[in-house]
Design brief:
This protein has two domains: 183 residues, Leucine-rich repeat, LRR (right-handed beta-alpha superhelix) (Alpha-Beta Horseshoe); 265 residues, Rhodopsin 7-helix transmembrane proteins (Rhopdopsin 7-helix transmembrane proteins, Up-down Bundle). Helices cover 45% and strands 8% of the residues. The chain is built from ten helices and 13 strands. The strands form three sheets. An eight-stranded parallel sheet has the order 2-4-5-7-9-11-12-13, with no helix packed on it. A three-stranded parallel sheet has the order 6-8-10, with no helix packed on it. The chain has a two-stranded parallel ribbon with strand order 1-3. Helix 3 runs antiparallel to helix 10 and helix 7 packs across helix 9. The longest helix is centred in the middle third of the chain and has 33 residues. Keywords: Cell membrane, G-protein coupled receptor, Leucine-rich repeat, Membrane, Receptor, Repeat, Signal, Transducer, Transmembrane, Transmembrane helix.
Amino acid sequence: MVQFSFFVLPLCFLFNSRKIDNENIKTLQNDSFMRYINLESLYLEDNKLTTIHPGTFSGLGNVHWLGLMGNRLQTLDGGGICHDAPSIRWLSLGNNKISTIEPHAFDCLSQLSDLNISLNPLQSMDEDVFEGLDRIKSLYVYTIYYTDFSTAMFDNTTNLDHVYFSKFRYCNFALHVRHCEPNSDGISSLEHLLARGVLRVCVWVIAVLTCTGNTCVMIGRSLMKHENKVHSLFIKNLCASDLVMGVYLIIIGTKDVVYRGIYNRHALEWKESFGCQFTGFLAMLSSEVSVLLLTYMSVERFLCVVFPYRDRRPNVRQAAVVLIAIWLTGFFLAFSPLIGHGLGYFDSFYGNNGVCFPLHLHQPYLRGWEYSAFIFLGVNFTSLLIILSAYTGMFISIQRTRRSIASSFTTYVGQATNGWIPDIQRKNLRTTALSGSMYAWIVIFILPINSAINPILYSLTTRTF
């Protein structure tokens, strides 16, 4: 074991800075620095220190800068730092192995203005962990994926001016801080729910097109007579599911207007509210019902083309049973996280971002990611394979005289499923997080655009059916 005492150091009363890096120091003896009464800066970085005992820094009453980065400290109780060097203004504890910070660990450091505890596997911190740090101005807690931050932790840090978190959503717990980093997750910023102006325009344009187009198709198909009532029934239900996506976009657009310029004050309240949970439920319901409907319709088209003379085709009653089953399945998939909300696993499933959509592409391993993977890799990917297989088989078996019919219908189904293909591919590569800005485009534009385009496809490409 490599030990370190004041006898190793030259006796000096004039040095005001000392740097002892990469010396493989594992233990510091008590009173090691008693002779360094004038020392103002001490750097013990990149050593192998595991514990700071009370008395280790005795005599360092004038030290203002203390660097302990890159060691192997595991628990911080403050006893070896707080009482021995109460005049510290800059303390760096980053890149250690600190998993626990004991309550009141920094109580005696009333002069501390800069604290760095980044790059530590923190698992336990008391709500009063920063109590007593009345003068702290900068706090570095980046690359820490501690999930139990709370507003109470920062209540006493009234002079805190800069804080550096790992994730944008943690800024919601320190609302009084003037400069919080990162200041955006690509979707939202400290000021706005939708950070970019082009997203604000897109959300309203697509919402209006989606609601207007699908409503018109539903009304039109209800008033007009069709030879194939079963197919018309499925089209109207597909319109209804797309219309739900339009409602989702209107809610997001409205909340963006309400919180314009003051979003960070209400971000935590919004994401934890029932309104956000319900909004996410609508988006999930719409997407899953649409995918399941398209899957069934693709299989039915395959059977019609490959076996044109089969006798057993679904009538209106049978179609109604299938539709009820599809809506109930979509409802169950979307509603399950609401049932589990408050039980731990699903607590932030819909509220992990401001748009309340749980695709989990920008932060792949958030709580509930397994369920998200089940939905988008299990259910949706399986549906996509069935749709592609159905149309591959259809083109192999189709007669030449009916090729134009199948081609037109494939255009409609292909367009409707096209938005899911890149998302499923990205979900498969979830080990690499998608940027927040790309995630915003997927949720606001790529997925909903199918709901806006579908009414046109219904009118132009499905008259034959």
